[in-house]
Structures are given as structure tokens and as C-alpha cells.
Write a structure and sequence with these properties.
The chain is α+β, with helices and mostly antiparallel strands. It has one domain (about 1-135): PUA domain-like (Roll). It has helices at about 25-35, 70-85, 115-120; strands at about 1-10, 15-20, 25, 45, 45-50, 50-55, 65, 85-95, 95-110, 130-135. The strands form three sheets. Strands 3, 6, 7, 8, 9 and 10 form a six-stranded mixed beta sheet that branches. The radius of gyration is 14 Å and the shape is globular.
């Protein structure tokens, strides 16, 4: 499936074509949709433009994104929740390989410590969580 989407970069707004199942590097993702090449939630001018999720940290991705209690990460996660709309989602498949899996939107989020503790216990790599975001594909 080929998806053409409007993407905003710091300098311009263009149509970007992403192919579901296609592999991209983080540099290619940044060139196509904008944002940095390190963040899980690349952003441009205060708007989250994509979600790049590592299944090792997010084993239920792309349907769920979990974040550690890091102030920088949580700031952008809350921005993602608040901004509405949908973003392209990429899953890490190896060193420098990110597979495009489609556009997803936020359906729910939580910072409730009891809910997060329950979700953290179900992860294969136990760690404290600061937020969980549930996502759904845009059809």
C-alpha cells in the first residue's frame, strides 16, 4: 500500500509518499517527514511528525508505546497525545533499519502509576514507566 501524506518540515510543506512495508533509515525518515534522527517522536516546530518505535522497548508496537519517566521524552509524548491527528509509524528492525507500518493515531494515554505498574510487569524487559500511549491504525 502506498500512502501519500502531507508532511511539514521546518522550511516547507510537501506531499510525501511512504510505502507500507518499505524500510527506511532514520536519515531518510528525517528527510521525508522532518524531525531528528534519534528521538522516538521526531518533531518539527512543536509538532510530532512521526513515531519511531523499537520493539525491544515497545513489544506491543505499533498498538502501544510505553515511555520511561524521562522529562524530555514525556514532554514530547504529551505533545503527541494533545496534538491529535495521526502520524507515520516506523518499527525498528535492526541496525539502521526502520520499517514503515502505516499511519496511527492516539486512542488513549495514561500516566496513572498503578496502570503503568501493571503494564510494566507485562513487559519482557521490566523497567519503570512514565506514560503509556495506545495507538490505532488510520484506515
Amino acid at each position: 500500500m502506498v500512502v501519500t501524506m502531507p508532511a511539514t518540515t521546518a522550511a516547507t510543506s510537501t506531499d510525501v509518499t511512504l510505502q507500507v512495508g518499505q524500510a527506511y533509515s532514520r536519515h531518510e525518515i528525517g528527510a521525508l517527514v522532518g524531525g531528528g534522527v534519534i528521538e522516538s517522536l521526531p518533531h518539527v516546530e512543536g509538532t510530532v511528525v512521526a513515531a519511531c518505535l523499537d520493539p525491544w522497548l515497545n513489544p506491543r508496537a505499533p498498538m502501544e508505546m510505553v515511555l520511561e519517566p524521562d522529562a524530555f521524552m514525556l514532554t514530547w509524548a504529551q505533545r503527541f497525545v494533545d496534538q491529535g491527528g495521526d502520524v507515520p509509524v516506523f518499527l525498528r528492525e535492526g541496525d539502521k533499519v526502520w520499517r514503515y507500518v502505516g499511519r496511527y493515531r492516539v486512542t488513549a494515554s495514561t500516566t496513572d502509576r498503578h496502570t503503568l505498574a501493571t503494564r510494566a510487569r507485562s513487559l519482557p524487559h521490566a523497567r519503570p514507566l512514565g506514560m503509556a500511549i495506545d495507538l490505532a491504525p488510520v484506515v
